[in-house]
Design brief:
Elements: H1 15-26, H2 45-48, H3 54-65, H4 87-107, E1 112-115, H5 136-146, E2 152-156, H6 163-168, E3 175-182, E4 206-211, H7 217-235, E5 239-243, H8 261-278, E6 283-286, H9 297-308, H10 321-331, H11 359-371
Parallel strand pairs: 1-6, 2-3, 2-5, 3-4, 5-6
Helix pairs in contact: 1-9, 4-5, 7-8, 7-11, 8-9
Length: about 375
Amino acid sequence: MSAYNFGPNHPMSPKRLELTARLARELGIFELPQVTLAESFVASDDELATVHSREYIAAVRRVGADPTLSDPDRGLGTDDDPAFAGMHEASARLGGASLAAADAIIAGTALRAVNFGGGMHHAAREKASGFCIYNDAAMAIVRLLDSGVSKVAYIDIDAHHGDGTQDIFWNDPRVLTISMHESGLTLFPGTGFANDIGGPDAQGTAVNVSLPAGTGDAGWLRAFHAVVPQLVEAFEADVIVSQHGCDSHRDDDLSHLNTSVDAQREAALSVAALADRVCSGRWIATGGGGYNIVSVVPRVWGHLMAVAAGRPVPLRTAVPEPWREYVREHYGKVAPLLMGEDADTWWRSWEVGYNPSDALDRTVMATRKAVFPLYGLDPWFD
């Protein structure tokens, strides 16, 4: 999985994955009796072609075979997505992991599955974008649909708009895509506003919550709970696929949001509870963005795996000393002492009232007004 590597100075460092796996192992998550570790595989061209064009796949192969080439029209060999040897195989392996997750859900051998190396939500049908080559979450969704699953809800809480996944399913009424992200007015990719609600045959199946820069835990969780559960329940999804990019954290340099590890854990718990209520527990979780590779990413995705396993790690749990020592020796950094940050994650329920002078409330209301009536929901009260 760590072969997905744009180079030593690129934010999308494979060290994120190595440190996350190492922390999960030290926490005992991989050894839980209900947890199975499954190997990934390199997705075939036919599997990739369920969401990407054959021409684009061939272009990724060409650039990966000769990294001196570039194809900027397809987003390959750019500053965001530099060419590297083996690009196709590495990217297709991330896709294979999410396909393996979907296959386990379909077969009934797993109720929940996590691919923290996935979540490549900017990858579009014909183009790489934002550190993403192949869209693994979209591939998993198509796999579920092709197996007979009627409806899939995709929930994206990355700081950046899940534009690639939304666009792939823009006019597909079987897929609800919900993206909660920093406003495109202040952050890449500059898209994902409340009036983006899906194609002519799928009105209301694209949902966007465009958060003001600076939004912290209280607003972030308020927005989530004011939009996501209501729509997933009304949509009556059979499976949830979620993307847990943790670049909304206050210590992440690639966004302007202000969340905590504690809030990210709370969101994972909420998605798990939603899957239990609506989908008989069936849930695939992926990683995504997140560029503070010591203090943030391993803890957030460690919590995600523990939540998926049904054994949440308490926030006051000590970060295992062997992991902290490893970080000190190999990265020269002081790792956190605890799995949480003692953050205040209290959030005000939408039912308490709407404040039109508050920027967060205005953006939430814009989303509710755009989409809720299409599901028979009242944007003011439901």
